[in-house]
User: Fold these one by one.
Assistant:
Number 1:
Amino acid sequence: MNFLSFYYTHKPGGFCKRLYRLLGALADKGHTVTYLCLDPPPEHFPSNVDIQVLPFPVKRRRGALFWGIFFLLIPLLLIPQVLRNRPDRYVLFSPVYSALFLLARLVHSRPLILFFRSLPFRINRITKQPAWVLFFSDLIDRLGVTNATTIVCMTKAMKSELEAFLGKRLPSTHILPNEVTIQNLTRAPRSTPPFTFLTSGVLDHRKNISFLLQALEDIDPLSYSLLIAGDGPLRASLEMDTKQKGLQNITFLGWQTNLSQLYSQVDLVIHPALHEGVPNSVLEPLGHGLGVLCSDIPELSELIKHKDLLFSLDDTQTLTNQLSLFTSNNDVRKKILLASQEVAQRLAFDWDTRATDICLSQAA
């Protein structure tokens, strides 16, 4: 079978990592896979996937000029690519890209499998985008869903929220979370402070790092240190916030390509996000036997299913209390660690096989 996919350029993080994995898994099964992009992907891109770089007149990959030309030109550039490759199926990882294939699918109508990694309409509202951005983004999301024949959501909560946004039931739908890759579940909790906390991800409003910083204000500074791995638009203001709060035992590490090298020194991962798909920044440490605490939002509560590993976002005191107990009570540390390891075992499965089966299924 012949598959075609498209994403504009490589970005660090779970989105591209998961997309590349799926394309490589399909190629490993003997299928022809073509990847369209504006820039050559990184060296770790699957070698058995055919890369076709589209000519594009604007070199800078951000800003109003780039995106304006992108949305006008890309639908036209896709048509000759589709006619040349004659794919049996389209595999895309965002409703934006599904919408871009509207014209191409009129020319060469084949099933389109759309994987949702997060909900753009939720993110845009969390990050307080202007009304005109919300209007056009929502329109594109609706067009993208309409153009898809199969929708793959990461959780049931994501599917329900997407249906509420659309005001209708989705067509053929699959639920496929990210998986935990088990590396080591034999860790035991350390018994003496200071304990090292870790949070990671793009530093924007969605990740809600300011909530964590506020919760740490009432924690004994001698009992912990916090590592913040990641970069993004809020990094400078978050660094300023830590100074104003007098939180001196917090280190901003910048973007880390390999977080696993930090896990041996980490005692607890904290993820205070306002909205998520199924974050690798939680799943990866779970696979290394680390304890996690996550915000009690629908997507994460469905994934974690353990009240001792969740904290409310209604106020910071709940998280403050949980972290105080973690740093002062060995039984609490053991309980969080064991519960996290149980979650890791439950979420260990072969994601590549499930994802490729969906792409090959008759429902697509």
Number 2:
Amino acid sequence: MKILSASEIANLDQLHLEKLGVSNHAFMELVAQRFVDWFQSQGFPSTTPVVVCAGAGNNGGDGLAIARILYSLGFSVEVATCFFANANLSTDCKQNLSLLPSQIPTYPLGHSALPNGGILIDAYLGIGCKGLLREEAKERIQIINSFGGTIISLDLPSGLPADTIQSGVAVKAEMTVTLGFPKLSLLLPEHAEYTGRLEVLDIGFTEAELEEFSSTTFFLKEKDVLPLHRRFHRFAHKGDFGKVLLVAGSKGKIGAAILAGKAAFRTGSGLVTCLIPQEERGSLAAAVPEAMCVFGEQQEFSAFDAIGIGPGLGLDQGELLKKILGDIHKPVVLDADALNCLAKDPSIWALIPKGSILTPHLKEFDRLFGRSTTHLERMAKAKVCCFNYGINLVLKGANSLCSLADGRQVFNSSGSKYMATAGMGDALTGMLSSYLGQGYSPENAVLCGVFHHGLAGELAGEDYLRGTMAHDLIEAIPQTYLRIGLD
């Protein structure tokens, strides 16, 4: 799903209305109904007090339509207007204000006390918000943030720009229900405290309409993943599912190799071999008896379909990394200490095969490319690197960013806050290596690996919440195939 800029969204809206042959007001009514359908699906009881904070533009018009529909369904609704009495309202906002039932209490925000609890729907400022806010806007946002219940922002938290980093105050939402596709700013870690949980509301934009725009930034959703997978026939044998080598684990860190090996098997690898210190062979054999072990540097690395290097390897393995990269001519996965060795010795860059996959977290990324002041700066650096070296890079975190060799940058939609524990990156290395070994293109391996990793984390998190561990995620990988309909 393409992610468009704020300036492009107005053009998309116009294109969509022309193709549908409907008015902007009719489209606003559809958006409001879709939001209300989502709202009801969350199980909020109709006795829950709801206050809609509506601005003077089309975002406010959406909010006013939502207030009217919720009232018709029996919800207790109030409207707090976020504009002066003589304000110049947009045409559709003005129409929806006139359509509000007189029974709905309506008052200027700040002139009456907000409900003590319940739900506040923030429909104040939309995608047109940019630059410095006026003082009255800051004051209104501060009042919204003082609300004692749950804040749900419509499309964007008010005060948050669509495409850039927030520089002032903004609404701090528990949930943001964004329309059509996520806006770039909602996917940046700097805005986590404003965005809250992100929900993308389908409002009818078609792929053909989005193709009219040239964005190279995308959002990966569940429906996109199934076509990326390879299919295997019933006569396939373990060799067809790939021979994977994992160069991982060192004395005291053999768990990294265990987790990567288990993840590779659970992802579908036919054969997994781990290059580990010989004294750790008993630990690996006990934990993953299906895996084979090899020891020392004298290996025929080219015999493997895919190689993952780095988890728990140690910072003193730069020469081993150089040897492996010099012996093979197929994409590899580089993670953890392989990336730290690369940061220490930039000459290794020239040895990395085209199509390879690098998987840094934020600190590893900064070691590789220098400190960045914003996530947008990291995005730019990753894009240039992938284009120059013909590689792929996964910048790990919430909504992990996949920068592909062809110039596309894809944010992932799956994942859970409960994945912030040790070993999750080791599991991802095993999964990505598995897909490469199964014959997936590097791009498809990246997208499938990152999505299934996040989805497995979601499924494990449903059971274990804050107690979720990496091995819980690994055991949930097979369920992710059932989820998307892949046998």
Number 3:
Amino acid sequence: MTDTHNLYQLLPDDLAKWLVEHEHSAAQTRGVMAWAYKKQAPPLFPRLLEDLAKLPRTLPAIIERHLSTDGTQKILFALGDGQRVESVILNYHRKLTVCLSTQVGCAMGCTFCRTGEAGLGRNLEAHEIVGMYLILRKQIWQETSLQAPCPNIVFMGQGEPLHNFEEVKRALEILTHPWALDLGPRQITLSTVGYLPGLTRFRELPRVNLAFSLHSPFEQERRQLIPVEARFPLSEIKQALKTMPLLPRQFITLEYLILKDVNHSERHAQALADWSQDLKSIINLIPYNPVAGFLFQRPGEETVDQFKKSLVKRGVRVMERVARGSDIAAACGQLAGARSSCT
């Protein structure tokens, strides 16, 4: 293992191997990780500190930040190669959550989403994903007067997480490892449009929460919204979801974007109830956040409420997502990874 590996890319076994290769004891692994992730100062030998200084541990750099009237923050990061990617800090009544990206751009091409407009730039590496979290956590701790706990994570930013499976897997293992960031898997939610090669490997990941972007119970209609439906149809995705290993109080979240005059009829409500009835799931209704230049429109509150009632009367467990950060283009589907004119 060479010194070109970023420190924040290394799992304990990797770090132990690096220590041995540099003539240090593998027993120092836990101490080094405490020093790197928890800012503890264990007794590290001077020569070890000198060698660690040669191991890259650069983090993404904040180049732009916007604050919403509702307290949401959108942060634009510059990566080591000059690529840019966005993350969001969400504040729900002192429950802090960071929305992380996993790719520069996105290959899925969803017709309602700004992120995929320019296609896929590249996958993020694990150290970049972990690095964004470290920076956002530090910022949260600096800005709050309270002793804030580690913020939760939603992988709902730029990119399809399961399309970047190996790096996301490594990042999750670092985020949840007790020697590293020690987050509980239930503090993390991963969202997917149903990229089946990754979804069938989901059990390889720590037991994080899963959110599936459904948006229509009809395959042909869904294909117009999410082109990858043509390759991975709902029928196959459904079978994969039914085999998900869930903890006793864990549910699959079915994300349902409500688009004005598109997918909120009684016919949709019935088909959605039928499709979800044999899944251990809860439906999360998301009123569309408008994107400049896109044809879709946001439904009125009365429309959303009526659709919600239609689902409830059919025995469906439903919640509604509160929109955050839409005034700074930080809401669902609005991230672009570019400099913005928002103030």
Number 4:
Amino acid sequence: MSDFIDVPGVSGVHYRFQRAPDPNALPVIAGNFVFVRGEGPALTVVGVGTGETLTSARKRWAEAVSDYGAEALFVRRNVSRRSRQLEHRDIVEQVHPALEAAEDFGE
């Protein structure tokens, strides 16, 4: 699986995410994250999230794997709360994920 993926938003912007090889060793920095299965043209985003710390993705990892078939976690560091929120909504509106996690925005 690639170390980087570009996830489209409904706006036409593509957001670059980096693979997180170990969900238990995520950086303690704000950002966005996606849970995916498959790769290449068959890549499917099954979950989209954001948090004041990327460690919040760890809370949903087991659910993403067991309930939605996630095979990998990708993260995007993004300190600006407003940018995280806008990017999160943009991606959600494009990919319509089965799992959405945006605790820092009350979702």
